[in-house]
Amino acid sequence: EVHLVESGGGLVEPGGSLRLSCVASGFTFSIAWMSWVRQAPGKGLEWVGLIKSKGGGGTTHYAAPVKGRFTISRDDSKNTIFLQMNSLKTEDTAVYYCVKVYKEVTPAFDYWGQGSLVTVSS
Amino acid sequence: EIVLTQSPGTLSLSPGERATLSCRASQSVSSNYLAWYQQKPGLAPRLLIYGASSRATGIPDRFSGTGSGADFTLTISRLEPEDFAVYYCQQYDSSLYTFGQGTKLEIK
After folding, report:
1. What pLDDT score does A104 carry?
2. pLDDT per position as a tens digit, A62-98
3. pLDDT band at residue A56, thresholds of 50, 70 and 90?
4. CA distance, residue B25 to nearest chain A CA (Å)
5. In angstroms, what CA-CA distances link B61 with A13, B26, B76?
6. How far is residue B78 from each of residues A48, B20, B61, B103, measured CA to CA in Å?
7. Average pLDDT value over all residues in chain A
8. Could you tell me which of A34, A64, B3, B46 has the fewest CB atoms within 10 Å of its CB?
9. Where are the beta strands (DSSP E) in chain B?
10. E strands along chain A, which residues?
11. Is there a contact between A108 and B97 if contact means CB atoms under 8 Å apart?
């Protein structure tokens, strides 16, 4: 059974930094593309970024609002991905979901974590 | 960036009725790269449809997806009480994703 468990959320002041982690189990992590999606309170879903498998190039890609401030990385030895968030803004307040990409040819998000709340406020 | 526009914003129907949700893209989307999700309050979204028309594991056959190019549709043939939720479409293009703004399906 697939599990994705996020951690690291909390309250941070504007301009601050926070790192989220997501530990995965139940599938072959090293070949999986992984992504982050966020949802501001009462709002819709917003894609944050993607990290491909090393076999897929290991590249990272980001949505425009977070590009240059957020960094996704992975540690295949620990079945974990990370979301490093710098220069945080109040509009980054959201629940952040770690998601698994189904497969490259049909890259939908087939499994989601429970989410980690990040609140940016002074 | 491809923009997805979902309509209607809110759909009020009764159990047993048929629901038709629309997702229109600002430019053509590969059918392989169009997905639909269901989200209930306080829960993470759940994948319903991938590749525009393939049901995800465990999804009942009352859910179906159709469409191509820039117009896609999610149909729920006969609404069950548990189907009232928010639905999102999503597309993938050149390593970037976007979601539609969502359609809320509420009980009439």
Report:
1. 86
2. 999 999 999 999 999 999 999 999 999 999 999 999 9
3. confident
4. 16
5. 47, 29, 9
6. 34, 11, 10, 17
7. 97
8. A64
9. 4-7, 10-13, 19-25, 34-39, 46-50, 54-55, 63-68, 71-76, 86-93, 96-99, 103-107
10. 3-7, 10-12, 18-25, 34-39, 45-51, 60-62, 70-75, 80-85, 94-103, 106-112, 116-120
11. no
- Tell which of B6, B95, B101 to mutate to test the A interface (max A CBs under 10 Å): B95
Any CB–CB contact under 8 A between A30 and chain B?
A: no
Q: Do A50 and B95 touch (CB under 8 A)?
A: yes
Q: Tell me which amino acid residue A100 is.
A: K
Residue in A46, A52, A110 closest to B99 by CB = A46
